[in-house]
Amino acid sequence: MKKALALLLAVVMLLGMVACNNSETETQDNTPTTPAGDDNTTPSDDSGSDSGEEYTGPTGEITFVAWGSDAEIECDLEACEAFMASHPGTTVHFEALNDDYGTAVETRFIGGQSPDVIYGHPQTLLSWMREGMLMPLSDIYEEHEELWDEELYSTNLYDAYLYEGDYYATPVGACTTVLFYNKDMLDAAGLDYPTADTTWEELSEMAEATTVRDADGVPTTIGLSTATGNWLNVLFSKGGKFLDDMNNPTEVVFESPEALETLEWIKQASDDGIAPSADDGTYLTGGFAGGEYAFYMSGVYDIVWLSAIEDFEWDIAPLPESMHQEGDTPVLYAGYAVSSQSENPELAKEFAYFMTTYEAQRIMAKTGLITPLRKDVAMLDEVLDIPGGPEHHSLRVETLPYSQNQQGQCLCWWEMTAVVDNYIYQMVDDQITPEDAMHAIQTECSELLDAELANQ
């Protein structure tokens, strides 16, 4: 079919809130539109869209669901339009599900009307992989050899979607955790800015120098936004592990010298008052963006929200000790899976592959919320030089080779993290020692994982 053929995009869109959160949404009627395309988008040399060759692949209709901020939804829509423009004879019906995404998709699976293409983190998709509700996509990786070009793609992201020897999604990208810091606060304290060589002990010293309390101990500013919530950041950077393999866990391996160092660092930070206590939270409500914390550890997606800061200068650095080897830095992935209920699986797989191409990656990079899978897109000036962005924005790309999945691929993951949090809070409250906390975490989390593995 000729490229001049007018195609229709049927959009069922639920207008949503910010990325990675769910909220009440408003349904918009299906409105057919003609693919518009983007005159400023460089055609993908691997999508088969504008190479001058007539598209001869699968045709028909598919449905695609995702969640996200308004900006992400706009990019999803633009990607659908770009796909149809380069794949004549196809229609993509897109729906944004920002209200309890997992339950909404699960309900459609149960009713036998699941979407064809499903966006999600590996944890989001895990139970569906195990239950045979998703289609293996290994053939995409086999047919498109360029996906294994390490100069072009961050191939270390793929294994998060690997289950029993098959890949079940194509990644759109990932978000590593970095250290945000208030340059003005460090300047006022006469401190150098953190670098890749900064240690956790040095970070504690800088946090102490930027913590200001009155005679009654009431804080004006505090060095660290949290200590208790950073246990995985510290553990990974010290070479420690929580699971033997975050992508395919068979045992909990938390109890170790590195874990003890992690817990002792958290306890010391709490004792020194360089991270907020529960009481401090009643005085400090503005967070890092409000200029109340010198340091804040979070995913690079927060760069988008923090770019609106006007009251002080800020930047990002790697987490302390986190750029020595692969596995030092926590990372969150996102990608596209295909339902095993799909009535047009070949077209659904074509769309999942398309989302890895230059054209689609450049569209999805516009939000700034995720670091694109393709390195040539991730390092584009238009991606890194955003208004209000940090000087060292390229760290979102440079930290990826040192990353590992920050969410264990087991259904009991959130139960295990609740166990960790519980014992860390007890430790900080002087109810138990770091050694006792470490042993209790190891014991209870092992029981949870062993029970899950026994029932698989």
Automatic annotation (TrEMBL):
Residues 24-34 have a biased composition (Polar residues). It comes from the Bacteria. Residues 1-19 form the signal peptide. PROSITE patterns: PROKAR_LIPOPROTEIN. Residues 24-59 are annotated as: Disordered. InterPro entries: Bact_solute-bd_prot1 (IPR050490), SBP (IPR006059). Pfam families: SBP_bac_8. Residues 37-46 have a biased composition (Low complexity). Keywords: Cell membrane, Lipoprotein, Membrane, Palmitate, Signal. Gene3D superfamilies: Periplasmic binding protein-like II. This is Sugar ABC transporter substrate-binding protein.
